[in-house]
Prior knowledge:
Layout: H1 2-21, H2 23-60, H3 67-71, H4 75-96, H5 105-114, H6 122-136, H7 144-162, H8 166-185, H9 188-200, H10 205-226, H11 244-274, H12 280-297, H13 306-313, H14 319-338, H15 346-367, H16 375-391, H17 394-405, H18 411-428, H19 435-440, E1 445-446, E2 449-450, E3 469-470, H20 476-485, E4 491-494, E5 500-504, H21 506-513, H22 516-519, H23 525-528, H24 543-553, E6 557-561, E7 564-569, H25 571-596, E8 603-605, E9 611-616, H26 626-629, H27 631-635, E10 638-643, E11 649-651, E12 664-669, H28 671-678
Parallel strand pairs: 3-4
Antiparallel strand pairs: 1-2, 4-5, 6-7, 8-9, 9-12, 10-11, 10-12
Amino acid sequence: xxxxxxxxxxxxxxxxxxxxxxxxxxxxxxxxxxxxxxxxxxxxxxxxxxxxxxxxxxxxxxxxxxxxxxxxxxxxxxxxxxxxxxxxxxxxxxxxxxxxxxxxxxxxxxxxxxxxxxxxxxxxxxxxxxxxxxxxxxxxxxxxxxxxxxxxxxxxxxxxxxxxxxxxxxxxxxxxxxxxxxxxxxxxxxxxxxxxxxxxxxxxxxxxxxxxxxxxxxxxxxxxxxxxxxxxxxxxxxxxxxxxxxxxxxxxxxxxxxxxxxxxxxxxxxxxxxxxxxxxxxxxxxxxxxxxxxxxxxxxxxxxxxxxxxxxxxxxxxxxxxxxxxxxxxxxxxxxxxxxxxxxxxxxxxxxxxxxxxxxxxxxxxxxxxxxxxxxxxxxxxxxxxxxxxxxxxxxxxxxxxxxxxxxxxxxxxxxxxxxxxxxxxxxxxxxxxxxxxxxxxxxxxxxxxxxxxxxxxxxxxxxxxxxxxxxxxxxxxxxxxxxxxxxxxxxxxxxxxxxxxxxxxxxxxxxxxxxxxxxxxxxxxxxxxxxxxxxxxxxxxxxxxxxxxxxxxxxxxxxxxxxxxxxxxxxxxxxxxxxxxxxxxxxxxxxxxxxxxxxxxxxxxxxxxxxxxxxxxxxxxxxxxxxxxxxxxxxxxxxxxxxxxxxxxxxxxxxxxxxxxxxxxxxxxxxxxxxxxxxxxxx
Length: 684
């Protein structure tokens, strides 16, 4: 063990020396690391598939079961297997890594956007185990999402161990994600594009080159152990008639509607489960039982569903059943994930698209048999169209179907259907199946980065106090004096009860000054004021909303509570708060590696007269969440990090993170606020 540790430390020293050279040497170093990540992620992908087959043997007494085999099982078995599996998954997720719940990709995107790509190493084992049990016991989810999260966690763990900076760490996370998709589908191009288009939102050469290398390395490993075979049995395709493109256009429109319905139903059911009073483990067992009940009549929903997809591609399934399976699969996937299961939504999107396309293709071919291709061709295009509509990633969708077929003939209808599905679905619902989960947490991403820095900060945190104001009856001379005394902008007009009546624009006052002598006895404040309309904000509104309003108003905003003027928000106030938030995020990113190595100081002076302090969690905080405590409003401080008792770090903690005994808080605030927090009664 000591020899291994010494060897690893030596490797890290060498990589740090290579990185210190900079330039081309540094890029070569990053490529070499990406190869290692690709190889390890490829091995994990192969091991994950073997683990699923092992769970299949335990749950169904057969490693690679068929639909006919499942149909012949007694009903209680079909219900019991996913029920027990759901309970085991619920326990694993709750006990070891809550981020292993769900389909995984949003968690990776959040880590890249908000935590500089930092993912806990334990996610590798926890996600593989939880997802393998969920899929193997009959959960209606895919294996691609888990592999993406596992690969990303591998890339993040390697990067953190090598102590690379945040930019490189994000790239290594992308390498792991690309390797996961490439190994799962035997599709290196699609894997690289998935990571660049969805995870990082960046096609820069410096980021893309290592991602491609990692994707290729993972594909080599996958092909060595599993063979060079496509994921699906794809039919031969040819475009029979140019007019057939109209049918593919209709398929693209339908795929958009179905993909939007999939996203909305998925998160609607997930929200219902989260509001349920049931604890996590019974909730996951209930979800498994419901999926098992659905599987009694429709065993196609169990597991990944590749056998059913192959039936649709080869045209051996009735169109009525395929259309029905579109809705049935959506419900089954939503229940599995919503109840606390672990697995991906990429393969279910392919399943839904294959059923939709196969159903449409069967109908079209029956109506115009001489001018249209086989139903399998439509099923193939439907797969790409639904994936594009659900993920808002048409390039990835097109390329993955192209790699599955290796046939250029499919590209034209595939591009038409996928682009139409993407355009219409983004119009109907701006959030994709991945970003919708982040939006529900208040995280908005653009090109892989969080854009709503101010979304969780209220106007009350940045506004100034009640500004000087005038009564509607104030004479013109009083208006001029007030304008001279307070030259910051408009003058607000309020009545005796401090109800906001309007505002006098600064431009109006300047124009009236030229005729001051003539207007002195004729004009009062009410004559000069204009209605504020909807140009007001409330103290509880977010600064993100206020920022959008400031863009339109281009002046200070009155802050109104129940009609009364309680403050004013100026553009410089928002900018100052934005700078503070950016400072906090930069501090989080730079402190994470320092705190992990145990070299952080107990107290560090920062800008704006604030202090960065490390304090034990106050006893009254134990068992409660950041959201329920409302620390920022109550104490005037910001918790940047939580160092848990087990040594793990929660950088930029979520509002629902719960404090536990032994946690240490890294807090930013003024001296008085920090003293109040540190002296909270019963602090240990």
